[in-house]
Structure to design on (229 residues):
């Protein structure tokens, strides 16, 4: 079974840059697009990155996504951290059978 | 504006079934797949499957095969997710989400809490 592994939590100070990783268990993570979703407590998720590195309209350019084939991982980078960025972040992709897969989620604390 | 509005919270006994609805507005319902994702309290997101509202074609996560059915009523722009043989581990918030192309979810419903308890 294809799995996506994320760190359980990360923390950083306001104004700094943080990177959240998402590692694929098998195959090539580059074979299917990776998305990143932000979820604040009590709310539905919202997309911050789609198709590896695309930002939906309204998402600030402080959010960026990338793929590293050598480590079979995707990354979400948030620069100029703000307290409002504090949330859970999930990566998502598809396996070889086009079944959706989510990473376990990363809790970002901005302190 | 695009909206997905889900039905209200449900309480079910183990072994029962639940049917959650997701009413779409602000776009052509048959033009985008609807996916279902659930989240147990304090846990991560779990993909359940997809449905094409135009054709009615579906694809389910292996974990839910045989227990989940996704349908639609195009005349009222509403998608449905029915989960049967409920057990306590199915207690979760269930979300519908519109999928753009074959990749990302751009709009989500507000979520429906399903509680399974004897």
């Amino acid at each position: 079974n294809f799995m996506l592994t994320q760190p359980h939590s990360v923390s950083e100070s306001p104004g700094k840059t943080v990177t959240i990783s998402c590692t694929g268990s098998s195959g090539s993570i580059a074979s299917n697009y990776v998305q990143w979703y932000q979820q604040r407590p009590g709310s539905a998720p919202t997309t911050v990155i789609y198709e590896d590195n695309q930002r939906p309209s309204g998402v600030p350019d402080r959010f960026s996504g990338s793929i590293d084939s050598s480590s079979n991982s995707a990354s979400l980078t948030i620069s100029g951290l703000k307290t409002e960025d504090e949330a859970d972040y999930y990566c998502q992709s598809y396996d070889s059978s086009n079944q959706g897969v989510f990473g376990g989620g990363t809790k970002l604390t901005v302190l | 504006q695009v909206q997905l509005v889900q039905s209200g919270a449900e309480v079910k006994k183990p072994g029962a079934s639940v049917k959650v609805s997701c009413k779409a507005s602000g776009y052509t319902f048959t033009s985008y797949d609807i996916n279902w994702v659930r989240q147990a309290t304090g846990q991560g997101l779990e993909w359940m499957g997809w449905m094409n509202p135009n054709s009615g074609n579906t694809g389910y996560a292996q974990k839910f095969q045989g227990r989940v059915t996704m349908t639609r009523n195009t005349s009222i722009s509403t998608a449905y997710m029915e989960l049967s043989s409920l057990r306590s581990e199915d207690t979760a918030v269930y979300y519908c989400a519109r999928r753009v192309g074959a990749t990302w979810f751009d709009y989500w419903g507000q979520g429906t809490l399903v509680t399974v308890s004897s």
In short: Chain B is about 0% helix and 55% strand.
